[in-house]
Design brief:
Largest sheet: none
Mean pLDDT: 76
Number of strands: 0
Length: 161
């Protein structure tokens, strides 16, 4: 049993490495297209519009290089995120979600509001699991009204919250 689990873990790891390599390759290809596109647009396109003749202008080449240098990392990050989403690799492991949780919660809300917010999140999750439709999530039921199945809302300690 443990041996089969080890093989499947190794296979999953190998698949993940293969996917990451593919994503890196596609990202590099997209960035090469970006660099060539900026060069063609700035040096050749603007050079033709300015009438610099047949040879590329040195200043337009420097401008294209500066634009690529300044925009490269933000464009690379966006392209990688877009490709990861398109290839369904943007899934985050549960451990990573838990590891990021303190950083995302700390300072976002006053400490006094956290219990109420957590209760609200839990309540919405439970409603979704119970099969509440989109209309049920869009507008909450009034206190003391009936919902599907004849159950009454507005009773108990948390009525009206």
């Amino acid at each position: 049993m443990a041996r089969a689990r080890t093989r499947s873990s190794a296979r999953v790891a190998a698949d993940r490495i293969r996917q990451d390599r593919g994503l890196s390759l596609l990202t590099a290809l997209a960035m090469a297209v970006f660099v060539v596109g900026v060069y063609v647009l700035i040096v050749l396109g603007a050079g033709t519009a300015l009438g610099t003749g047949g040879s590329p202008s040195l200043w337009l080449s420097v401008l294209a290089t500066a634009i690529v240098a300044l925009a490269f990392e933000p464009v690379r990050r966006s392209v990688r995120q877009l490709l990861a989403r398109a290839l369904h690799q943007d899934r985050v492991a549960p451990y990573q979600v838990l590891a990021r949780f303190p950083a995302t919660v700390t300072g976002s809300y006053p400490a006094a509001e956290l219990p109420a917010r957590m209760a609200g999140v839990t309540r919405r999750r439970d409603q979704r699991r119970a099969g509440g439709g989109l209309a049920d999530r869009a507008r909450p039921a009034a206190a003391g009204s009936t919902v599907a199945g004849g159950a009454r809302t507005g009773s108990g300690r948390h009525a009206g919250r």
